[in-house]
Each structure stands twice: as structure tokens, then as C-alpha cells.
Amino acid sequence: MKNILPLLFLFFSRFSIAQVNVVMPSEANTFYQNAMLTIKPGIKNIIEKNANKLTRRRVNVDSLIKELHKIPLLHGGNEKDLEAITVLILVQASRNADANLKDLVIHMRHSNSEMKNEEEEENCKNTAALLVENKSEIAQSISVIMKKLSGSAEMVMDKFK
Known about the structure:
Elements: H1 4-13, H2 26-38, H3 41-53, H4 61-69, H5 79-113, H6 118-149, H7 153-156
Helix pairs in contact: 2-5, 3-5, 4-5, 5-6
């Protein structure tokens, strides 16, 4: 039994590297759920389209806000409005990353039952690590923006209902 414990520790420590270091604020999820129920369909499409662009890519909030300035439907919004839309995009991107991770884990489990080459296994591990790292960065960005909005996020979204 004493010999098995170190082996178990080594086996499970391999998976402890891929952890989300920053957790998304719960108020961001609440804001997302409430906002997505009430905003215009055109804004929803913008959110989903931009979130899909961020799939498996690093998030740069400043670039995202600059891109939002160029969208004609958002010309009436000020900086706080665009930050609120950015939060919605980032939350959707985080949800997309969750779905991608889930699919990857299912794929890995299915592939483990079959014979699979090491290159494919390494590729899956790298993809999972990238997704987890991106989720951490997204959560950190959301925290920063939510602090800037400081409770006025729901009021900001009134223009887009």
C-alpha cells in the first residue's frame, strides 16, 4: 500500500497543472444571464460572433473594445457600454471554452479506449492547457472590467434593450 500512494500522487499531480487560477466573478454570470434575456437580437449576434472569434486565441480586451467601436450598431454607446458588451463577450467566450474542454475530455476518454498515438495525446494535452490558460485570462479580464463598472452594468445595458 505504501508503494501505491506515491504512484497515485504522481499520476494525479500530472493533472493538477491545468487549473484555472482565476475564477470568474459570480456577478458576471448573473449579469450575462440577465442581459442576454433582454438585449436586442442584433447585439446578441455581435456577442456570439466575437466570442466565437476568441476561440482558442488569447484575449486582448483593448483590441476587442477597438473592434466594438467600429460596429455601426454600437455607435450610440459610450465607453461603459462597450465595456459591458465586452464582459458579455468574454463570459460567452468562457462558456465556449468550457464546452470545448468538455468535448476534448470526452474525445480523450473515447480515444483512450482505442489505441492512440502519442502525438495525438500530446496535442490534446496542449489544447487543454491552452484552453485552461485562456479561461484564466478571461476571468481576470472580466474581474477588472466588472470593478470598473462597479454595479452599474445593468444600468449601462438599458440602451441595448
